[in-house]
């Protein structure tokens, strides 16, 4: 039996719950892995029966990875090491909770598009303490929905940073940088390619592609320690964001080698993408693709069935024209899955594992 005794900074609100997050019996790196009880002396405690010979690592948190313990100066702290066969009491003095891993670049301009927007960058655990390491990058559309409840649609974010932190610390996903690219009032025009015709006049999807490839990516590569090759660069999104991700991998196979299309809007412009998947199909041989669809994509049974048929059709096309003997794509039908941020965030861990575990 091991007793954990955690002392927190004086400015920690007394009503906040304190947790341990760590390997295996310490919560599989969930930020709320092991809840601690507050004692009258101001400490927070828990007693755990750990397996004989257990060796692991852990950190204290306030229930979110954005509020994990730091070095007291806003910098990342390496996890503490624990030996179950060591002392029966572990004393932990938390220096601060001010660790943050999301950086914001507001008002990011473009010479191709009229609206500036926010670029949000989540840095994985270890980034601040491994200065010689470079990281793959995952670019995600509708970036305002990824991390923060106050900017997310309906106040429900994907919690992509929390999910990625848990998976990376648990060892199921290698460290990866997440880049959120916020949308603008021109979202449909930027995410929705049109066939030739009068409607093409409002189509800004090609310009959006140039914005990502010629402006956002060079900015990220210059400011952060990235791996720039296509096999280490992914793009993804949901709904219309999933649709434009498929187009971008087709247009720029030398830039994006990984694609995530969650509930892609394949109905757009009379199924334009579906009708052209196999035109210049070389991208399918080089790109690793995740495609999924929820059971309840629409408020009506008829609408959900139509969405399911389109997505299954895309899956068949990917299987037919992709390389043999190598799982380069994954198609998933999500039981109970809906067309909303909460549902997409709930399967983001699966997306990360499929796209980046093989890196």
Automatic annotation (TrEMBL):
Transmembrane region(s): none
Keyword Ligase part of the UniProt annotation: no
GO molecular function: hydrolase activity
Alphabetical keyword list: Hydrolase
Protein name: Alpha/beta hydrolase
Annotated signal sequence range: none
Domain of life: Bacteria
């Amino acid at each position: 039996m091991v007793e954990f005794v955690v002392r927190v900074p004086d400015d920690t609100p007394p009503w906040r719950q304190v947790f341990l997050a760590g390997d295996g019996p310490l919560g599989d790196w969930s930020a709320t892995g092991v809840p601690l009880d507050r004692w009258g002396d101001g400490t927070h405690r828990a007693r755990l029966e750990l397996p004989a010979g257990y060796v692991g690592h852990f950190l204290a948190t306030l229930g979110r990875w954005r509020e994990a313990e730091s070095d007291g100066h806003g910098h990342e702290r390496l996890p503490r090491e624990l030996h179950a066969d060591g002392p029966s009491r572990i004393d932990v003095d938390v220096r601060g909770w001010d660790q943050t891993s999301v950086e914001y670049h507001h008002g990011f301009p473009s010479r191709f598009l009229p609206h500036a927007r926010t670029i949000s960058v989540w840095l994985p655990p270890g980034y601040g303490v491994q200065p010689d390491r470079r990281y793959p990058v995952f670019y995600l559309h509708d970036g305002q929905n990824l991390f923060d409840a106050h900017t997310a649609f309906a106040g429900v974010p994907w919690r992509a940073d929390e999910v990625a932190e848990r998976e990376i610390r648990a060892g199921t996903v290698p460290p990866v940088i997440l880049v959120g690219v916020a949308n603008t009032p021109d979202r449909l025009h930027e995410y929705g390619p049109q066939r030739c015709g009068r409607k093409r006049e409002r189509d800004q999807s090609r310009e959006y592609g140039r914005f990502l490839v010629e402006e956002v990516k060079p900015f990220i590569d210059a400011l952060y320690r990235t791996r720039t090759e296509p096999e280490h660069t992914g793009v993804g999104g949901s709904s219309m964001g999933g649709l434009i991700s498929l187009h971008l991998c087709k247009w720029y196979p030398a830039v994006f080698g990984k694609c995530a299309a969650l509930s892609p809007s394949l109905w757009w412009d009379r199924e334009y993408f579906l009708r052209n998947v196999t035109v210049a199909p070389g991208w399918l041989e080089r790109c690793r693709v995740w495609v999924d669809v929820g059971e309840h994509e629409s408020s009506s049974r008829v609408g959900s069935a139509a969405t399911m048929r389109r997505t299954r059709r895309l899956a068949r096309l990917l299987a037919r024209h992709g390389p043999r003997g190598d799982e380069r794509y994954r198609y998933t039908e999500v039981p109970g899955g809906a067309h909303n941020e909460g549902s997409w965030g709930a399967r983001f861990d699966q997306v990360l594992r499929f796209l980046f575990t093989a890196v």
